[in-house]
Write a structure and sequence with these properties.
By secondary structure, the chain is an alpha/beta fold. Helix content is 18%, strand content 28%. It folds into 3 domains: 3-88, Udp-n-acetylmuramoylalanyl-d-glutamate--2,6- Diaminopimelate Ligase, Chain: A, domain 1; 103-308, Hexapeptide repeat proteins (UDP N-Acetylglucosamine Acyltransferase, domain 1); 318-347. It contains 5 helices and 39 strands. The longest helix has 28 residues, at 320-347.
Length: 348
């Protein structure tokens, strides 16, 4: 597949500086791009790389004299690159139809143009939507409903009665609908609380490899439309994750947390149970959140505090040895002064 630079500019509402008729056959990084490929530049740290790139064209936020080739000026070069990369991305490999090596219960409903690889298991009363792809090793439990054009990569487990929407992507090794971690102490022993709810994953959600989403104790654990979860994310029972939220790798969310829309959590964030995280809040990597966060709040640290306060506090850390030395010097001066005062009192 090839597109002219002019065609690409139209798709991203950009303005061409240079030759609109250059044919582009792919995208690449500034370092790796060659003739016939396109890249993007939006970070001044890469200005020297921009000078040396062999790309035929580059997305830029404004005309840049450092690059002598054709340029497409756009408001957000990275976003334009992402959209164009999607045009050149290779299609997802598909098995031609339903493999005889899959085990599918006779009561299962499958839509048109599904792709079901060998070694898939689908239980009773399940439903697989039109155009959905199930890779080898996928387990679909009884009563699971999966929407249209969804991708379920190898060795994903979706347990009974869970609901998966349209155009969802679930990467390899995920477990959807395992029991929530619910117990009540009876003296020295733990009594299991039956986890009788489900997991509901709405349209256009993507879940990274080896993530686990627990079913609700009652009701549902709910991942709303457009949310994106990175690899190794743990979502406990009865959590609600709002539309278009982003959770980076190794985030852990305790039970019954409600996360608003467009929230962003950095890697290794931990959230205590029964908290409210407001819309568009931002949580820095490795933060430990023990209190609810209002809409638009930005927090860092463990325990998490407002980000600006955290920056002020951490800026003092490198000066702590100096402060400690000054404190000890002051203590010594005070001791000498007290001795001198006692001596004067005794003489008087």
């Amino acid at each position: 597949m090839e597109l002219s630079l002019g065609e690409i500019a139209q798709r991203v509402e950009g303005r061409v500086i240079g030759d609109e008729d250059i044919m582009i056959a792919g995208v690449n990084s500034l370092q790796g791009a060659g003739p016939g490929e396109m890249s993007f530049f939006g970070d001044r740290r890469y200005k020297e790389v921009l000078k040396k790139t062999k790309a035929s064209a580059v997305f830029v936020p404004k005309e840049n004299p450092s690059f002598k080739g054709s340029q497409v000026v756009v408001s957000n070069p990275e976003l334009a690159y992402a959209k164009v990369a999607g045009l050149f991305a290779p299609p997802v490999p598909r098995f031609g139809g339903i493999s005889e090596g899959a085990v599918i219960h006779e009561s299962c409903e499958t839509g048109e143009n599904v792709s079901i690889y060998p070694h898939v298991y689908i239980g009773e009363e399940a439903a697989i939507g039109e155009g959905t792809v199930l890779f080898p090793g996928v387990f679909i439990g009884n009563g699971v409903k999966i929407g249209k054009e969804t991708l379920i990569y190898p060795n994903v487990t979706i347990l009974h009665d869970c609901l998966i929407g349209d155009k969802v992507i679930i990467h390899a090794g995920c477990v959807i609908g395992s029991d929530g971690f619910g117990y009540v102490r009876d003296g020295s022993t733990s009594v299991k609380i039956p986890q009788t709810g489900i997991v509901q994953i709405d349209d256009h959600v993507e879940i990274g490899a080896n993530s686990c989403i627990d079913r609700a104790a009652l009701g549902k654990t709910w991942i709303k439309r457009g949310a994106k979860l990175d690899n190794l994310v743990q979502v406990a029972h009865n959590v609600v994750i709002g539309e278009d939220a982003i959770l980076v790798a190794q985030v852990g969310i305790s039970g019954s947390v409600h996360i608003g829309r467009e929230v962003i959590m950095g890697g290794q964030v931990g959230i205590a149970d029964h908290l409210e995280i407001g819309d568009r809040a931002m949580i820095a990597p490795q933060a430990g959140v023990a209190k609810s966060i209002p809409p638009g709040g930005v927090v860092s640290g463990t325990p998490a505090i407002p980000h600006r306060l955290y920056l002020k506090a951490t800026s003092l850390m490198s000066r702590l040895p100096q402060f400690n030395k000054r404190l000890k010097d002051l203590e010594k001066r005070m001791e000498r002064q007290e001795k001198e005062n006692r001596g004067k009192q005794e003489k008087s």
